[in-house]
From TrEMBL:
AMP binds at residues 237, 313, 335, 337, 339, 419, 436, 445. It comes from Thermobifida fusca (strain YX). Pathway: Siderophore biosynthesis. InterPro entries: AMP-bd_C, AMP-bd_C_sf, AMP-binding_CS, AMP-dep_synth/lig_dom, ATP-dep_AMP-bd_enzyme, DHB_AMP_lig. One of its GO terms (biological process) is siderophore biosynthetic process. This is 2,3-dihydroxybenzoate-AMP ligase. Keywords: Ligase, Nucleotide-binding. Residues 450-525 form the AMP-binding enzyme C-terminal domain. Pfam families: AMP-binding, AMP-binding_C. The lineage of its organism: Bacteria, Bacillati, Actinomycetota, Actinomycetes, Streptosporangiales. Belongs to the ATP-dependent AMP-binding enzyme family. Residues 33-399 form the AMP-dependent synthetase/ligase domain. GO terms for molecular function: 2,3-dihydroxybenzoate--[aryl-carrier protein] ligase; nucleotide binding.
Amino acid sequence: MLDGCTPWPAEFAVRYREAGYWTGETFSDFVTDRTRRFADRLAVVGAGQRWTYAELGERSAVLATGLARLGIAAGDRVVVQLPNIPELFEVVFALFRLGALPVYALPAHRAHEITHLCTTAQAKALIIPDRHAGFDYRTMAAQLRHAGTAPEHVVVVGEPGGFTPLAELRADRPDPGVFTRPEASDAAFLQLSGGTTGLPKLIPRTHDDYLYSVRASAEICALGTDTVYLAALPAVHNFPMSSPGFLGTFHAGGTVVLAPNPSPDTAFSLIETERVTITAVVPPIALQWLDAVEHGSQSHRDLSSLRVLQVGGAKFAPEAARRVRPVLGCTLQQVFGMAEGLVNYTRLDDPDDIITTTQGRPISPDDEIRIVDEADRPVPDGEVGHLLTRGPYTIRGYYRAEEHNATAFTPDGFYRTGDLVRRTPTGHLVVEGRAKDQINRGGEKVSAEEVENHILAHPAVHDAAVVGMSDPYLGERVCAYVIARTEPPSRSELLRFLRERGLASYKIPDRVEFVDRFPVTGVGKISRSELRRELARRLDTTR
Ligand code: OOB
């Protein structure tokens, strides 16, 4: 196994193989098999291009040959930072054919994060676009070069600006002699942790474990050759990649449509013209979509092909969840997952109240769920506690992070998710917040999520984010950031509204800030850590 990874103990590996979860299929097998099996079907639509599976297969074979000539070999790590363009799949499939490991970086990452990824992964190459969303990635790469932290090769999709153009690596003819089939039990790529603070940690996922989650997700989401999946979020994130995402769609022989951004305008026009059947968004985007249909600008769009809207990545408030079916005319599927492994889905045939009030249940019968108190003791059934998990597609350790692993995992291999959850009698999980997001107001615990849900119920409110602000007397107080729809309600009106909903007085925000937008992470989740920092700055200047 790749140095710096933690394998599953042998008895677990045996069990997961015997149960049929780990089949021995590798990503190089996946590429060869699916591009042949579905050869004539449409695989990818994006950036003005339409590729069949056969074309995707051929392109990746040709590029693999060129990458091999450049010196990329089995086991090498390559940081892939590409937006939602078809070349992303050409590159990733080429790397899979070589047995090289993509390290997935979000388009929103900048020199700071990319340096960290390149150094930690000891990457052989970095693959970037020329420009995207107003940012020049070549300038960033030049900065890395200057600092001596750039990998040996920098490959650019588009105008190379002094680096290696991807176009030049497309060999005349593919040479299957360079293709390498790795071990299915070895790491296939490095995914990033979704942490909203600090630098992302690297997550080694094996062929065996990840392909199991892809197959099982495709089945849960009922994907088939008629599936048209819209990648509206950055495709390299775990959610649009495998839950069931583009890999689930390729597994099933469907079509992946790439959206350059998830705005209602862009996404709805693609849904309409490509007859999209399923897509995935984070809650702030879901709210934008709901508002665009309900209050105007996009109400004329034909979204009738859409069967499933997946919402995940952060808590989707029940108040908002209930609007999905009436407004968009499709089934909501809540997805509570993490790049480290465990993914929960509400099932497509779950009753509406489960779909709108829970974050789903695990993929696998062998996903072990423990809900514990501060001392790792199980809490009584139905009560809120810290979620620990272990299973056939949840990692046993981060990449090259021995020290961190000692606290991020229990001695018997459970991953400490940092999430506070409770389990319903039906086995569904309800996320009550991040342990870190709980506000401790003089000993009274306030769940940011709960207060946000109440604020969202106000008709003039578009979105809300609640964070703790430090306080000399109580330790912390409650601050609500609110985006209003048009006319913001007055503070006193909003607070009265919350009291009338029967919210305990210690949960009523001590401070309300109206803003136009929230700071977000690379995948578009609200960044509470940035909000907290912003609040600290504000408090500092008003003191
Ligand atoms: C997904 O993955 P990451 O790695 O970016 O973030 C994982 C964390 C979870 O530990 C949890 O704190 C939060 O994001 N989260 C949710 C959630 N889905 C993720 N919190 C509340 N409700 C949800 N539905 O975000 C991710 C990976 C695969 C599929 C979906 C999301």
